[in-house]
Write a structure and sequence with these properties.
Chain lengths: ~325, ~290
């Protein structure tokens, strides 16, 4: 097992370097002189200032390899520079205060997706072509095709405009004056709509996958023999089949992480949740390049770590993977 | 091929999807003749008019006709979908063939590159790239294409790995065909079926991505009417003009749904084997 984890870690190193390299390339995307970037709605005055700051922070007058090396060494010290926004705070600090919110949202999202999608998948697989199965198939197709931002708008219309639910931020304006339990309730009610939107698409995908995986497992011989030795159907499905059908789901969960995290960009900016996604959109509008780059590097590094954890979890639950990995190495 | 059409025509959902896809293309092409109003002409007397006979889907906050804007928006959506998927497929085919045919170091390098690109949450990468570029419809197409080729690369590589061991390939290599010729004439034509499916399913994904970016206000710049732009403007007046928020979203939903149904239908008809493994998971708009 230790070998397996070490191998995974070694494989992650080139990816980590790759993340920094791609992010570095992004800075040099602008055609011609990297400094001739589009400054959008900024005045020419402030854009000249921004250029100056960018030139200084990234040393853009030096040769490319030197620039990359300098940038790397600063990243290694977790120095992402300072924001171009008027507050001029360190990028790391700005991201650090938003990271927990995005993480919390994504963890809740994943938990809900798993808790809801697994039973749906199992039921539609064990009752294939039943009314329930057909209904979930329709849900899956519609779920895939619904733009999450539109779904969010509809929910805001239904819950916000007509029912008066909170539709922006994470706390009510008079939050400080509420009792402890009211505060928790307030927080939860603010989370309800964003979480609903964020889980909707993933739910469709995962219930589909669970169904597929279950259908394959149920056909296996060991399920036949479990039935043949007289086990209750509940035990056959709930224990023998479910465990094996869950294995691919762990991998898919790892693979779909970037998608889930990327989705927080839209959800956070619609519902005005102060997380990393909202920060990203704001900094794109403000052309706050240090924050954009810092965000990109940190988000993708976190995804890499999460993928790594998913790999390790997979190795833990499925001995074939870790043993197979060692033999191949 | 006969089997293919027979299977596909038995799949009623896929057929319905195909019909809608064709209709949408026709609407987009005929937009200038079909649109009752100039999509960009403001009318101060009709600001936020609710749907009526003159304005089927109402007007927006500048008094522009939403129906006409949506017709023109369908052109943008479809164009972005097709071009960006074309770019992604071209990159994917080249890299996938190189990796699958050559194996070894080339393969290892390409697959690492795929892994690397998959680590970036797509929306974060798109936003970062777009922040440095001049916004235009072409940038959007290019950027969506350049960040979406990983799936096709993997597919093509997998096809190449199995096809290059087959007799007809080994034979043509033995009689002295160049690597390029073997790839181009012998392997690639046999590897294209899954690519076609991936492309059909990639178009709706690209449309979702484009509309998401436009909705955030970072996509196709105004005054181009796109479904995402209309929704972006609609969210400001959501309490008054529900039609601005409902119809463009519905258009996206129907378009994406039809392409998905058609794509899955084609996949099942091309190769029933794919149905087993091919539950797909396109991380949505991520």
């Amino acid at each position: 097992m230790l070998w397996y984890v070490l191998r995974r870690l070694l494989l992650a190193i080139p990816l980590l370097i790759g993340i920094t390299f791609i992010s570095f390339l992004v800075i040099h995307l602008a055609p011609g002189d990297p400094m001739d970037f589009q400054t959008g709605e900024l005045s020419t005055d402030s854009s000249a200032q921004a250029k100056q700051m960018l030139r200084k922070q990234y040393g853009l007058d030096k040769p490319l390899p030197v620039q990359y090396w300098n940038w790397l060494t600063r990243l290694a010290r977790l120095d992402f520079g300072r924001s171009f926004a008027p507050d001029g705070r360190p990028v790391l600090q700005k991201i650090a205060e938003r990271l927990p919110i995005t993480l919390l949202l994504n963890v809740i999202e994943m938990a809900i997706i798993l808790i809801v999608a697994v039973p749906i998948g199992v039921f539609s697989a064990t009752r294939q072509y039943s009314r329930f199965d057909k209904a979930t198939t329709i849900f899956v197709f519609v779920g895939f095709a619904t733009p999450d931002f539109w779904f969010a708008l509809l929910l805001m219309m239904a819950f916000g405009t007509y029912l008066g639910w909170p539709i922006s931020g994470l706390r009510d304006t008079n939050w400080e004056y509420l009792s402890f339990w009211r505060q928790q309730w307030d927080f939860l009610s603010h989370l309800f709509l964003p979480i609903t939107v964020a889980t909707f698409g993933g739910l469709a995908g995962f219930s589909r996958y669970m169904r597929q995986s279950m259908l394959e497992v149920v056909r296996q011989d060991y399920i036949q023999s479990a039935r043949a030795k007289g086990l209750a159907e509940r035990v056959v499905i709930g224990k023998h089949a479910l465990r094996n059908a869950m294995l691919p789901i762990v991998t898919i969960l790892g693979l779909s992480l970037p998608g889930l995290i990327g989705g927080s960009v839209i959800v956070e900016s619609i519902f005005a949740i102060p997380g990393m996604g909202q920060l990203m959109v704001q900094s794109v509008f403000q052309r706050d390049y240090p924050v954009i780059m810092g965000n990109l590097v940190i988000v993708s590094t976190l995804t890499l770590i999460a993928n790594l954890l998913a790999d390790v979890a997979y190795g833990l639950v499925d001995p074939r993977i870790r043993l197979g990995g060692r033999r191949r190495a | 091929m006969k089997d293919f059409w027979a299977t596909l025509s038995r799949n009623r959902l896929a057929l319905a999807g195909g019909v809608v896809v064709v209709c949408l293309a026709a609407l987009a092409i005929l937009a200038p003749t079909l649109a009752p109003w100039d999509p960009n002409r403001p009318d101060v007397k009709k600001i936020l008019a609710s749907p009526s006979r003159a304005h089927l889907l109402g007007t927006d906050q500048l008094g522009r006709d939403v129906f006409s804007r949506m017709l023109y928006g369908s052109r943008v959506s479809l164009a972005v979908g097709f071009v960006s998927v074309g770019i992604a497929a071209a990159i994917g085919i080249v890299l996938g063939s190189l990796a699958g045919y050559n194996g070894g170091m080339v393969d290892a390098f390409v697959m690492r590159l795929v892994d690397l690109m998959l680590v970036f949450p797509r929306f974060f990468l798109l936003l970062a790239v777009l922040a440095f570029l001049t916004p235009s419809i072409w940038t959007i197409m290019a950027v969506i294409g350049l960040t979406g080729w990983m799936g096709v690369t993997r597919l093509v590589r997998a096809e190449f790995l199995s096809l290059k061991e087959r007799e007809f390939v080994v034979w043509s290599q033995n009689v002295g065909a160049t690597g390029f010729r073997v790839i181009w004439r012998h392997i690639l034509p046999n590897a294209l079926a899954p690519v076609l499916v991936a492309m059909t399913l990639g178009i709706p994904a690209a449309i979702l991505t484009e509309s998401g970016l436009s909705f955030l206000g970072i996509g196709v710049p105004p005054p181009h009417a796109t479904w995402g732009n209309i929704l972006n403007e609609g969210k400001e007046t959501i309490e008054i003009g529900w039609w601005l928020s409902v119809y463009p979203g519905l258009a996206i939903l129907v378009t994406v749904l039809s392409y998905n149904l058609l794509g899955e239908g084609i996949r099942d008809a091309l190769d029933p084997r794919l149905r087993q493994t091919g539950g797909r998971f396109v991380p949505r708009s991520g």
